[in-house]
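ugh finaly. both done.
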Amino acid sequence: MSGCMSPHQKYQWGAMKRISPERKAAVLAKILRPYNMTVAAVAQMEGISEATLYYWRNQTKAEGKPVPGADNSSEQSPAQARLADESISLAE
């Protein structure tokens, strides 16, 4: 047999891939503003589990950075805040 391995043979079941901080930041940026892609879409696109992305997102939130969808107390973007203000004005 040759010494070449397919990409699927590189990692044994349960072995964790090492992801560089640069790639992690680039992937995480896709679920944050301004892109706001869904975790599921980014996970599928990048080949990283949703659980890992949720973990990274929660780590980012713990560092004090605004992260959409990380909890029920929504932090609104400026556009969302304007829409909420306009809705209140229209209701009055």
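ok and the 2nd:
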Amino acid sequence: MNGIEAPRFPDVRVTLSLHKRKRTAIVVVGLVRRALDRAAVPENVVELYVRQALSGDYQNAVMVSAQWVTIEAAELPLDERIIQALMTGDLETAHRLYQEETRTTTEEKKS
């Protein structure tokens, strides 16, 4: 799997929008918490996730979330480079790759 471990709950999927810079750790954790609740994950396990995810900044919340659930980017079929950037918490690279992919897709549609 290219050195990337599967999340603890791979069937639980959360979509994050990479282009919305106003995301906060609280927003990310809230989205993941609701998804875990919907998947009937026990409350004590969800609380462990919340403590880990909120133990740092926004990047930490995204990295921890990616270890627990499958993170998908809105409006973009993720390729391995974007997934790897998300998993390592390199949001700047993930955002740049997203913008390049969007630009390429737009140019292809114009052709």
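summary for the 2nd one i guess: The beta strands are 9-16, 69-73.
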